[in-house]
Amino acid sequence: MALAGVLRDGALAFAEAFGRVHITATPGNHSREMRKPWAKLSGVASYDTLIVAAVARELKDDPRITFEIARGPDVVTEVFGRNILDTHGDRIGTKGGKGRIGAVLPIARGAQIIKEQQHSMGRQIYAIRAGHYHYACEPEPGVLFGGSVPGYSEYAGGELRARLQPPSQKLALLTAKWGLRERCDVQLEEPRSAAKPRVRISATTAA
Question: Which of 19, 159, 173, 188 has minimal Cβ neighbours within 10 Å of its Cβ?
Answer without folding.
Answer: 19
